[in-house]
Specification:
The chain has 231 residues and is an alpha/beta fold. It has 2 domains: 145 residues, 3-Layer(aba) Sandwich (Rossmann fold); 65 residues, no CATH class. It is 32% helix and 26% strand. A 6-stranded mixed beta sheet has the order 5-6-7-3-8-9, sandwiched between helices. The longest helix has 18 residues. GO terms for molecular function: ATP binding; ATP hydrolysis activity; transmembrane transporter activity.
Length: 231
């Protein structure tokens, strides 16, 4: 075959092959689960309760240790929890964004610049000195994202980040994440139960019984998930 005739296969920033995971009780959560998220794209992970979505995300983030199978991630990984109060640990916005940079051994000037750049990216630069407790839920989630951007994470994982937000804040957050993915070449995998959020994604995976049973265009997966919920 002439090289010019070959199909360009996109590079995957997140690759999972035949991943299995069971709880200490013996209950199997993931069963030979496989997926691949193309670099620079925004994909969502769907499934009913108990399908293994959050467990898969925690395995990708290294919060759980995989038992068998393969996980490959291209670049530093950032994780955004459903409840931002579980990951915002410092008293002020700027201090929290800077907190994750300690291990990078940067100069004070570099740290300050990273914080400013990250807060600008999520449109919260004016809140740098604001106490964390004075933020709304949506603002807290954006600060969590800013922390990952400051660390220059290339892969972002979101575990139902809009679950605790009001409807307007939900769509504002998902829209902003899509914009960041496209403007910065970041790769994102987003767990959701909200079907309207799929409209912002490049593609989606449907998880059922611990396996990916469908992947690709979000619209048919949306219809399939609705059928699962109705049955």
């Amino acid at each position: 075959m002439n090289p010019s005739d070959s199909v360009n296969v996109p590079t995957s920033a997140i690759t999972v092959r035949q991943l299995c995971y069971s709880w200490p009780t013996g209950a199997q959560v993931l069963k030979s689960c496989s997926l691949a998220v193309p670099q620079g794209e925004f994909w969502m992970l769907l499934g009913t309760n108990g399908s293994g979505k959050s467990t898969l995300l925690r395995l990708l983030a290294g919060l759980l240790a995989s038992q068998s199978g393969e996980i490959a991630l291209q670049g530093r990984v950032g994780f955004v929890f459903q409840n931002p109060d579980h990951q915002l640990v410092m008293p002020s916005v700027g201090a929290d964004v800077a907190f994750g940079l300690v291990e990078d051994q940067l100069s004070l000037t570099e740290v300050r610049q990273r914080v400013v750049d990250a807060l600008s990216a999520v449109k919260l630069q004016e809140l740098q000195r604001r106490p964390i407790y004075a933020l709304s839920g949506g603002q807290k989630q954006r600060i969590a994202i800013a922390g990952a951007l400051a660390r220059q994470c290339q892969v972002l994982l979101f575990d139902e980040p809009t679950a605790l937000l009001d409807p307007d804040s939900q769509l504002d957050l998902v829209s902003q994440v899509r914009s960041l993915v496209k403007s910065r070449g970041i790769t994102a995998l987003w767990v959701t139960h909200r079907l309207n959020e799929l409209d912002y994604s490049d593609g989606a995976f449907l998880l059922s019984g611990g396996r990916v049973v469908a992947a690709g265009d979000p619209e048919p997966l949306k219809q399939r998930l609705m059928q699962q919920i109705d049955t």
